[in-house]
Amino acid sequence: MSEDIAGTIGANLPYLRRYARALTGSQDSGDRYAAATLEAILEDTTPFENNDPKLALFHAFHLVWASAGAPLGEPDNRLSARAQDHMSTLTPNTREALLLHSIEGFRVEEIGTIMQVDTDEAKELIDIAIREMETSVAGKVMIIEDEAIIAMDIRAIVEDMGHQITGIARTRTEAVELASTDKPDLILADIQLADNSSGIDAVNDILAQFGNELPVVFITAFPERLLTGERPEPAFLITKPYTESQVQSAVSQAMFFSSTETLAA
User: Fold this and answer.
1) For position 45, what pLDDT does the model report?
2) Is 242 exposed, middle or buried (0-12, 13-18, 19+ CB in 10 A)?
3) pTM reported for the whole predicted model
4) pLDDT (tens digit, 9 = 90+) per residue, 207-254?
């Protein structure tokens, strides 16, 4: 394997692991398939010759995962178990296409290359996934973000999707107090907050209150702080600057795959 290919794989491995976890519904399972992908690449680097290395990496993962029957992993917890129950109701291949497009940022034609379908089919898969998720469930969303303009933009995106915003917290202390006052169904959180407090610590404090049963979407300019290979890692992580479709996709999936009795369908 050339140094260029190895470097590209190393740079994109955290994002492949993010995708694998969201796709399989389990951090352990996602990591196993990512590792199996690397083993397959070591045995045969031919797909990387004269092809975009990142596309080749994700395509190699799909070949490994599909050859195993596109299985879901053993759930990490009750939240993950609920997610897997919901996955079985989706139209086949739609979740993969949506994740590749909205979370990983691939263009439609690139998704076609990765999934080995034509561009029109890739676009249709994305559209189907969005429709199925957005119409399935709505709930209460809490935003942890210290930049007012970004917070209001996220609020507008989420409210336009039909969700209720419980409030916006700028610090760790505010976040914990807000969650205690009005328990959310989903948390959208930045990492670096006002007064130099940590959004990660704020989320951990809130999860401790509610038994780690709340889905979380991190929106951050520092994804490397969360994609470390250590447990736990978020299934939904959006990198700033974000797009409206990325927020919509992550919120829809988090709500859809971890809806609870408190959510109003």
Assistant:
1) 81
2) middle
3) 0.60
4) 998 876 788 899 988 777 776 665 556 667 888 999 998 898 888 878
